[in-house]
Design a protein that fits this description.
The protein is mainly α and 163 residues long. The protein is built from six helices and no strands. It comes from Arthrobacter deserti.
Length: 163
């Protein structure tokens, strides 16, 4: 079991480093327009969910690098982290769903974009907890989706907030 994630070590090192840097940049991007971000109905909670999702990617990658980490334990750890991110996403969804002046489809898309990474992390974590070695590909996909979502949110916080 010690080498269960050996094939993923380069990926995990890259995700851990890039994710930590991305989380820092996301916080800087939010701080540039902090007054506007805090005054927007949906952005503060979405910012928290975005940072939380990226940090889950970092944590999952770091935990997969722990020597001797059993597959089931990593699954349980990622599942616990995904649970926290789901709470953040639920908190972010409430103001989105109440946002005036937005079509239902736009609101639904915003919620789905936020929910996709934790959904993929949850699936991967459940498969890992069940002992499926190859299930780490789901966790990796969750990491990539977390990064894409964070970059999208950064754009929204920096540019779209001023429209």
């Amino acid at each position: 079991m010690e080498n269960a994630f050996a094939d993923w070590s380069d990926f995990n090192v890259a995700v851990a480093g890039a994710g930590a840097a991305l989380a820092g940049l996301l916080i800087v991007a939010m701080s540039v327009n902090i007054a506007e971000t805090l005054n927007a109905a949906t952005l503060p909670a979405r910012a928290g969910a975005s940072v939380g999702t990226v940090m889950l990617a970092v944590a999952a990658s770091c935990l997969a690098l722990v020597p001797g980490q059993p597959v089931w334990l990593l699954g349980a750890e990622v599942l616990a982290g995904a649970g926290v991110v789901w709470l953040l996403e639920a908190h972010a969804a409430r103001p989105i769903l109440r946002e005036p002046g937005q079509r239902g489809a736009v609101r639904a898309m915003k919620v789905l974009v936020g929910a996709l990474p934790p959904a993929v992390f949850t699936a991967g974590a459940a498969l890992l907890a069940a002992g499926a070695d190859s299930a780490y590909a789901w966790v990796a996909a969750g990491s990539v989706l977390a990064f894409l979502g964070a970059v999208l949110f950064s754009w929204i916080a920096l540019v779209e907030n001023h429209r």
